[in-house]
Write a structure and sequence with these properties.
Structural class: alpha+beta
Largest sheet: 7 strands, mixed
């Protein structure tokens, strides 16, 4: 391949550009030998001419498009600077990929934006993956280091470098977070302490610079220690080169260390008040940068985080206090102002406020500090002198002391952190993380830059050697011939710096001179090193020098080198600090006594001192340097000499130690790049990038790779890619390597351009590009040939189409013309007919119009004449009416006038007559006779008045009495007057109303007139309305049509509304189902956590047992996987009863019987879980009912409570009355009791009454038993006879009463003899006695001792007295209990009342709205609580009723079965055991006697209960078993075993059972066998046996699945049987919702005595646990198969893309990488195998679907996550491959009948990913299609795939603007939080549901096969 071939026309090249460094272009003509110019057209269309002198100046060639965006820069065909720069730019700006490999180096570009790349899901995605399998990432490098350490037990190191702001600290932090995540343990939490050191170190060592807001101003190397199981056990940190000068000086827009600003921000905290801090602008050390705040950083919150981290690392409060005191003192130190004085001296003013604060915080003397800050001590041989310091020297001394104080605090914190994270156990390996400065070159470079660049020279040398070593190892491993690769060796530069008489040696020498200066040192450098290759002297400066580093030439200013190297602090200052009153501060500056080897480091030798004097000047250790414990190899040497150690010497020693550490480890490199100086997100500046690439050694790596064989392809990849260049006869698919070798030898003639390795082909630089050119040319030629052929075929087809079209057009044209002629003729004839018809129609219409007009005119004329005549008549009638009214009015007026005159005349006459009579009376009064008459009349009147006075006196008393009445009447009069006034006002208003009525009458007249007028107008309007009605009818018809249309629209809207409502209802249902599913998931997750913790507890127990049992000298054993469990510790998962009290009693009984160690340890956890599940289910089922009944309950609560109280009071009153009567009876019998007691005391012995009463009770029991049996016999015969009669009636047989046995004689005989009455009486008496004994809580022995030989006389009265006394005692206790309950209720009501009053008082202070809300909330909460209480009571009562019903059924069954007993059983005697009544729950006894039926049934129930063996004397009653045998014969479907065979049964049916034994039998047969044994225990009413059996079954199943935790067949088998046993327990529980699907025969086999609902919950939890275990087995098996089968296999034959990029980068890559061929068929085959096993075991179909759904979710999640993290998987052909594989999976699902909506939803995200890869990504339609189709993918996932998308060969690249459009459209989605998710949680497990699936198999038909080895079971 010649140069002329490469630089042909259209060859793409790179051209230098001053703006963007390199620009792309294309040759416009071929290059020929000897050409001096190249014509190039740039990408922007500009044509340039490039002048060249020879071939070496030809521009670099560009790589083919297939290599653009490569993950590894060394995979590029052309390896040079522009190719590297462009590839990084493409990945960073277009794909937003911040990480890129460059061989063994990870290049990390700072995005200046938060990216979702560091979550826990991403860590899990990279964990366990090979380095080349995923996209570049810091986690991939960390995983590679961790994997190398764990596999090869080698120490590793990660070296992170870069300039400030490039992201070094963040990268190192993420690497440590990865190690903490994959190597953390729950026991030690060391990883948390390691991570907690980050905020502390950032606070004291990071600061804001112009390039970075959080720049690390020191280097650090952290060693993370791991133990033998690869868990973090500790860490150690070393620091380097703290930038101490930042403490006293900051440039513009920069800050001091963060800790200063954090303290100022938190200065208001009480614990920081003594520091007397303020705003940072108030302090000189923090105001120089004029940037006290940083955007996005809250200093106060950062300080709280710092305190938390310190607390986690065990910084005590006192230590934190002193640390903050010292740092605060440094701040105040900057404000200590030193002013100049005369004679070159200085002083501190006495009014300076900051110096006392400094001395107070440091605990030193103010006078001493004030003195020695302005003076220094000079020690001579004879005397000690004090020399004043100038202002500049004093200021420098103050700043030096501040830097020293801060550095000592920094060192102490680092040492303390190391102590806290020191390894607590043996360290096997470690991983070191080095975070250090990159190469620095500024305008002014000083001592710090020199040290940094010196360290980078050492690191670059180590890096270059390591890269060279790896390249050579790769060649050796592939067994190819290679020659030595020449690379840049910077050893001469390092020797010039650190060797004898080197730069550092001369600097130390100059520092030892008393008057050493920077100029003298610089002159020495000129003398010693001028002329060397790596040293030069500037032309314009005599105080600087230039060092030629590996990255670039750097000019250093010598000013300050000597002083910084000395790092000198006045001893007087240190002595003051050592004398601090605070021990913490004094220890910071404690004088070290370090031995120094005088035989080494001769360049820094000084004369030994006589001792350490106070004036001795020492040089401080550099920051981060670690003090060596011993520098002498021989411990016998004990030197006491102290020497001055310079900063460079200490730094060189530290660097030498670091390099030795790195050389002992396997290094991994991370180079951080800063893309721009403005911190813009994803803004790439090529100039800045290329500078850093040159400085960090990336380009050197590229050069080394380019010198060898950079491009490496495996043989299958080469064969697949370049098969188009092979001839068909040379292709041999069975010999891929041979075919590739033959082809390559023909294509490339120069054998030096490639090498054949064992597994790969190695190419020189540019050869892959040449092969790509040949391939493109071959494909282009093939395309041209295809185009030619296709175009010919297209043109021929076009000609044929045109010819055929012409013929057809002619045919249709002729037909068209003929049709046109016919059409014309038809139109002419039609026109003539139309004209005739139209003319006739037109004339008729004209005539009708004229006729209508004439008729209209006539009608209007006649109407007008009629109206005129009507008007004249109306006027005449109205005139007559007016005249009549006028004449009447005038007549009335005249009559009123005459009447008035007559009355006046009468008044005058009467007045005249009255005057005359008055005059006559006056004359008569003057006469004597008249006076006499008057006096006589007066005497009579006086007498009369005297009598009247007496009468009035009598009446005066009455009058006084009436005055009161009068006053009352006066008040009433006043009221009446007011009423009268009101009445007057009402009258006035009435008058006004009459006036108004008169006015309204007048108006009415006017209105009447107006109405007449309107009537006339109405006639006119009516006629007009009739005319307008026609128009309205037309409009109404139109409106009807519109209305119909609107109705249709309304119907449509209603239909739409109904559909919308249905959708909303469906959505609500889905949401409800989702909530239920989430609740179930939380429960199952809790169960999973519990199982995991249980396993962990067992492991720890075994480890402790192993440690205890191991001999003292035995080494500890490593932790192994457990396959067994402690069966005893897992027994007992629930209780048999339904109440909490019975649960507690069973637990206590179990503990007492088995012992505390063997009792169930997890009982409380299971009880809580079961209670929680029951509560949730109850709330779910009854929520709707509560909402419906809430209102009714609220209304009835008050009335119900009142009724209950009334009933309670009535009952209490009746009880009191009854109690009083009983007390009277008791008093009447006291005398009898005294006599009885006297007789008892005079008895012969104490036990005699007991014996007598026991015998009497036994006799009574025997007699009662006989009478009971007789009664039962009679009842049985009656029942049987009734059944016979009913049966005969049913079948139509004529029945007769005579067929019944004649029982009346026997009954009459028993009545005559008194036997029936006696039997009833004795039975009643005995039952009363037992009930009284149980109610009074007294034992039989106490009763016998109390009443003596009462039974001898068999006195009924005395027995009744006993019964009454016991009942009285019971009533007393019941009464006390009820009184206590009533008191508690009263207290509760009182408390409620007080609480209500408080609430009312509070509500009165609220606003009305708030008050209403408060009352409503309170009422709702109260009613809710009451409803919950009622629900709990209802649930308890329901359970209690169920239990009683079961007991009643069992008793009834026993009674009915007793009818089959033989007659000889009547004479059989048996011992009756007196039951022991419970003493914890007193039973109230009613005074009414129970009926004989209830008594008989209860006694029969007691007598028929199974009697324990220890209470039966089998020797005396050998014939006691016929009854039990008879029941066994009747009840089938049960298996009996002896208690001692239980463990044998568990072992045979579960522990040692093999699934193959169940093949060919009923699925779930072990579950049926177990249930048959449970049925027998239930029938025997043996709760202990049921509990023991169930606990053993559960423990056995758990033990079996744990033992076979990796065997899918075992786990699947026992999951099937567990679920089947769960269904059987539900089916035969007797509950209505389960038993309604059973047959009558199956319902007969339901459990009778025990409620196993809680055990069903435990069984359900066990099923969930086994299901999760089975899912993990499937995941572990198919997880490695998913990516190869779904993405990497070429099932569809579409793989033509580039190789995966694997270059042997990772030594941890598995060897079978190339030989592993997993296709989609392999995955389907594996899934089919699992499905076959589950089907063989008879697993429920719904459960099988859930398992398959979980598998497909894993396939979807793993595939999508791999696509999101692999750029090589994001292209069009891969989308086609995914669709093909998806179709195969769907076809398999359909063939197995597993495909449903759930499966479709599970696979939907993967389908959408395939669509996203295949859709067009250039147009607006593509944006719409992506947004509509990718609904299951998040925005982050869609944008990530679009950024990673790689176009195929003839496809255009996706524009960034297209991605931005998609992103803008997708940001409108409703759930932004979900849309930020990048990876799918592959560990998510769907909550499993076990749908109820009853069995149709009858337990009576089940036979136990012999292969089960259960011969000891007996079928009943």
């Amino acid at each position: 391949m010649t140069t002329q071939e490469l630089y042909s026309k259209r060859a793409r090249v790179w051209v230098r550009d001053p703006e963007v460094v390199w620009k792309g272009g294309e040759l416009t003509k071929d290059y020929k030998e000897g050409d001096k110019e190249l014509a190039i057209e740039l990408e922007d269309g500009t044509a340039v001419t490039l002048k060249i002198k020879n071939k070496d100046e030809l521009p670099p060639l560009r790589n083919p498009d297939i290599l653009i965006g490569e993950n590894d820069l060394t995979s590029l065909s052309y390896l040079h600077e522009p190719a590297v720069l462009f590839n990084l730019q493409e990945r960073f700006t277009r794909s937003n990929a911040i990480y890129t490999y460059c061989g063994i180096v990870l290049v990390a570009i700072n995005p200046y934006e938060e990216l979702p790349l560091y979550g826990e899901d991403v860590i899990q995605a990279y964990h366990g993956q090979d380095m080349g399998a995923m996209d570049p990432h810091i986690f991939a490098v960390a995983e590679e280091a961790f994997k190398r350490m764990s596999r090869f037990e080698q120490d590793q190191s990660i070296i992170v470098s870069g300039e400030s702001g490039a992201g070094k600290t963040v990268s190192a932090k993420y690497a440590m977070r990865y190690f903490a995540s994959v190597g953390g343990t729950a026991e030690t939490q060391v990883e948390k302490k390691v991570l907690a050191s980050n905020p502390i170190m950032e606070a004291i060592g990071n600061a804001k610079t112009t390039r970075n807001d959080n720049s690390s101003r020191f280097g650090k190397y952290i060693e993370i220690a791991f133990n033998k199981v690869h868990h973090i056990v500790g860490a150690n940190m070393r620091t380097y080169l703290l930038e101490k000068s930042r403490v006293v000086f900051q440039a513009s827009e920069e800050r001091n260390y963060h800790i200063f600003y954090q303290l100022c921000a938190a200065c208001n905290l009480p614990e920081l008040q003594n520091l007397r801090l303020a705003h940072p602008d108030m302090f000189f050390y923090t105001q120089q940068g004029e940037a006290p705040t940083v955007d996005g950083i809250d200093d106060s919150q950062q300080f709280l985080d710092l305190r938390d981290a310190m607390s986690l690392l065990n910084f005590s409060n006192e230590q934190q206090k002193y640390i903050f005191q010292v740092i605060g003192a440094v701040l105040h130190f900057g404000n200590v102002e030193i002013v100049p004085e005369k004679h070159e001296s200085s002083k501190i003013e006495s009014d300076n406020e900051n110096l006392p604060i400094v001395c107070d915080l440091l605990g030193v003397e103010e006078a001493q500090m004030k003195k020695w800050l302005c003076n220094r001590k000079i020690v001579t041989v004879r005397e000690v002198l004090t020399k004043p310091l100038t202002h500049s020297m004093a200021t420098f001394s103050r700043d030096a002391l501040s830097k020293r104080i801060y550095a000592e605090v920094f060192n102490w914190i680092v040492q303390h952190i190391n102590k806290m994270v020191i390894p607590t156990e043996k360290v096997l390996n470690f991983i070191g993380v080095l975070d250090i400065y990159g190469f620095e070159m500024f305008e002014v470079n000083s001592f710090e830059q020199f040290c940094i660049n010196y360290a980078n020279e050492k690191l670059q040398q180590q890096f270059t050697q390591h890269v060279f070593k790896l390249e050579q190892e790769e060649y050796v491993r592939e067994q190819i011939e290679w020659s030595f690769i020449d690379f840049y060796d910077n050893q001469p530069c390092i020797d010039m710096i650190e060797n004898k008489l080197g730069i550092l040696d001369l600097l130390d020498e100059e520092c030892m001179l008393p008057k050493g200066s920077d100029d003298n040192w610089c002159q020495k450098l000129y003398d010693k090193h001028t002329g060397k290759k790596h040293f030069s002297k500037p032309r314009t400066s005599r105080t600087s020098f230039v060092v030629h580093h590996f990255a670039d030439k750097v000019e250093y200013q010598s000013e300050g080198f000597v002083e910084k190297n000395r790092d000198q602090v006045n001893d007087e200052h240190l002595n003051i600090l050592r004398a601090s009153q605070y021990e913490f501060i004094a220890n910071l500056f404690k004088q070290p006594a370090e031995p120094v080897d005088l035989n080494k480091g001769k360049s820094a030798q000084v004369k030994p001192l006589r001792g350490v004097s106070k004036g001795h000047k020492t040089f401080k250790k550099s920051v981060g340097s670690q003090r060596k414990k011993k520098l002498y190899p021989d411990e016998s040497l004990e030197p006491t000499t102290l020497v001055q150690v310079s900063s460079t010497t200490k730094f060189r020693d530290s660097l030498r130690y670091l390099m030795s550490k790195l050389n002992m480890t396997t290094p991994h490199y991370v180079r951080c790049i800063k893309p721009n100086d403005f911190k813009k997100a994803f803004d790439y500046e090529p100039k800045r990038a290329v500078e850093q690439l040159r400085a960090c050694g990336v380009l050197e790596t590229i050069r080394i790779s380019a010198a060898g064989y950079p491009s490496r392809w495996t043989y299958p990849e080469f064969f697949t890619r370049y098969r188009v260049l092979m001839k068909p006869k040379d292709v041999n698919r069975n010999d891929v390597r041979g075919t590739s070798e033959k082809t390559l030898q023909k294509l490339i003639s120069d054998p030096d351009k490639y090498q054949f390795g064992k597994t790969k082909i190695f190419f020189r630089a540019g050869q892959v590009a040449y092969l790509e050119k040949l391939r493109a040319d071959k494909l282009r030629a093939a395309c041209i040939l295809m185009q030619k052929t296709v175009r010919c075929w297209v043109q021929w087809r076009k000609y044929q189409r045109i010819r055929n079209s012409t013929i057809i057009i002619q045919k249709y044209a002729r037909g068209l013309l003929a049709r046109r002629l016919v059409k014309y003729m038809r139109r002419t004839s039609a026109s003539t007919c139309i004209q005739r018809r139209w003319k006739g129609y037109h004339q008729r219409q004209k005539y009708l119009h004229i006729r209508k007009a004439i008729v209209t005119i006539q009608s209007y004329t006649r109407g007008m004449y009629g109206r005129q005549r009507y008007t004249i008549i109306l006027r005449e009638a109205r005139a007559t009416t007016i005249q009549r009214y006028a004449r009447g009015w005038m007549a009335r007026k005249r009559h009123r006038k005459v009447l008035k005159a007559i009355i006046l005349l009468q008044c005058c006459v009467r007045r005249m007559r009255a005057r005359r009579e008055l005059k006559q009376l006056k004359i008569e009064a003057r006469s004597v006779e008249h006076h006499r008459k008057v006096q006589k009349g007066m005497e009579n009147k006086i007498i009369t008045l005297t009598q009247k006075i007496e009468e009035m006196k009598e009446k005066s008393v009455k009058a006084k009495e009436q005055e009161v009445t009068i006053q009352k009447l006066n008040s009433q009069v006043i009221v009446l007057e007011k009423t009268q006034v009101e009445a007057k006002e009402a009258t006035k208003r009435a008058n006004e109303a009459e006036t108004e009525i008169e006015r309204l009458r007048r108006e009415l007249g006017e209105v009447t007139q107006h109405r007449d007028k309107l009537a006339t107008d109405l006639e006119n309007i009516r006629r007009q309305s009739e005319e307008a009605s026609k128009d309205h009818e037309a409009e109404s018809a139109k409106l009807k049509e519109d209305l119909t249309e609107k109705e249709n629209q309304m119907k449509e809207q209603q239909v739409q509304m109904e559909e919308r409502m249905k959708e909303e209802v469906a959505a609500i249902r889905q949401e409800t189902a989702k909530e239920i599913e989430e609740e179930r998931s939380r429960h199952q997750k809790l169960l999973q956590d519990y199982n995991r913790m249980e396993q962990r507890c067992e492991n720890l127990k075994e480890d402790m047992l192993a440690l205890q049992s191991a001999p003292p000298g035995a080494p500890p054993r490593s932790r192994a996987i457990r396959t067994d469990s402690n069966e005893e510790n897992e027994s007992g998962y629930g209780t048999l009863s339904t109440s909490t009290t019975e649960d507690a009693e069973n637990i206590e009984r179990e503990i007492m019987e088995q012992g505390e160690e063997l009792a169930s340890m997890d009982m409380s956890v299971f009880l809580k879980l079961q209670q929680r599940v029951r509560t949730l289910e109850k709330e779910k089922k009854q929520l709707q009912d509560l909402m419906d009944k809430n209102e009714d309950n609220n209304k009835n609560i008050a009335s119900t409570t009142a009724n209950e109280l009334q009933v309670t009071n009535n009952q209490l009153q009746s009880l009191k009355e009854e109690n009083a009567s009983l007390k009277g009876d008791l008093a009447a019998r006291i005398n009898d009791l005294v006599t009885l007691r006297a007789s008892l005391q005079s008895g012969s012995g104490e036990d005699e009454p007991m014996t007598i009463l026991t015998k009497q009770l036994a006799a009574l029991n025997e007699e009662n038993e006989k009478h009971r049996k007789e009664v039962l016999k009679l009842k049985t015969e009656l029942a049987n006879s009734g059944k016979v009669i009913n049966n005969n009636k049913d079948v139509g047989i004529n029945t007769d009463v005579d067929l019944l046995p004649d029982l009346s004689p026997e009954v009459e005989e028993m009545s005559k003899d008194g036997g029936l009455q006696m039997a009833y009486k004795s039975l009643k008496m005995t039952n009363h006695l037992f009930a009284a004994l149980s109610a009074s809580q007294s034992s039989l022995q106490d009763t016998v001792h109390k009443y003596g030989s009462l039974a001898q006389t068999h006195n009924d009265m005395q027995v009744g007295q006993i019964i009454l006394e016991k009942e009285i005692e019971a009533l007393k206790k019941n009464h006390e209990h009820e009184v206590q309950q009533l008191r508690e209720e009263m207290d509760k009501l009182r408390q409620d009342n007080e609480r209500q009053q408080e609430i009312i008082g509070q509500n009165l202070q609220l606003t009305p709205e708030a008050r209403v809300n408060q009352v409503a909330q309170h009422e709702i909460s109260r009613l809710t609580n009451e409803n919950l209480d009622l629900l709990e009571q209802n649930e308890y009562l329901e359970k209690h009723v169920k239990k009683l019903k079961k007991q009643l059924k069992a008793a009834y069954k026993r009674v009915t079965q007793s009818q089959h007993e033989s007659t000889d059983d009547q004479n059989r005697t048996c011992e009756i055991i007196v039951p022991e009544f419970p003493t914890t729950h007193p039973i109230p006894v009613s005074s009414a006697a129970p009926s004989i039926t209830s008594e008989a049934s209860s006694m029969v129930s007691n007598s028929m209960a199974p009697i324990p063996h220890n209470h039966v004397n089998e020797a005396q009653h050998p014939s006691h078993s016929p009854l039990l045998r008879h029941k066994e014969y009747q009840i089938l479907g049960m298996l009996e075993y002896q208690p001692h065979d239980e463990q044998r049964f568990i072992k045979s049916i579960i522990t040692d059972f093999q699934p193959k034994h169940a093949e060919g039998h009923l699925p779930g047969l072990p579950a049926y066998v177990i249930f048959m044994c449970i049925r027998h225990a239930d029938y025997m009413n043996d709760d202990r046996k049921v509990k023991s059996l169930l606990a053993g079954v559960i423990n056995g199943i758990k033990k079996t699945v744990k033992k076979h935790f990796e065997d899918f067949e075992y786990v699947s088998f026992w999951l099937t049987n567990t679920i089947r046993l769960l269904h059987i327990l539900k089916q035969y529980s007797g509950e209505e919702n389960f038993s309604n699907q059973n047959s009558d025969r199956q319902n007969e086999h339901c459990l009778r005595n025990f409620d196993l609902s809680e055990y069903r919950q435990v069984m359900n939890d066990l099923g969930v646990h086994i299901y999760q275990m089975m899912v993990r087995i499937i995941e572990n098996k198919i997880q490695p198969m998913i990516v190869p089968s779904m993405l990497e296999s070429d099932s569809a034959g579409l793989t033509t893309n580039k190789p995966t990029g694997l270059r042997g980068r990772s030594a941890s890559v598995s060897e079978d990488y190339e030989t592993r061929h997993v296709s989609i068929d392999s995955l389907i085959k594996q899934l089919a195998a699992y499905l076959q096993v589950m089907s063989k075991h008879g697993m429920d179909p719904e459960l099988t679907k859930q398992v398959i759904k979980q598998c497909f979710y894993l396939v979807t999640a793993s595939t999508i996550n791999n696509i999101l993290l692999r750029k090589d998987m994001c292209h069009w052909s891969k989308g086609v491959q995914i669709r093909y594989n998806m179709s195969e999976l769907e076809e398999w699902l359909r063939s197995t009948r597993m495909y449903d909506m759930g499966m479709e939803e599970t696979l939907e995200p993967l389908v959408q990913v395939a669509q996203l890869l295949q859709v067009k990504k250039r147009t607006v339609d593509g944006v719409d299609l992506i947004c509509e189709a990718c609904t299951k993918l998040t925005v982050t996932q869609i944008v990530k795939i679009l950024n990673l998308y790689t176009p195929d060969e003839y496809e255009k690249r996706t524009e960034v603007s297209f991605i931005r459009k998609v992103q803008a459209r997708l940001h409108k989605r409703p759930d932004p939080r979900r849309e930020t998710q990048l990876l799918i949680d592959a560990k998510h497990t769907f909550s499993v549901v076990f749908p109820y699936n009853p069995s149709s198999v009858l337990v009576t038909e089940i036979n136990v096969p012999d292969s089960f080895s259960l011969q000891f079971l007996r079928k009943m």
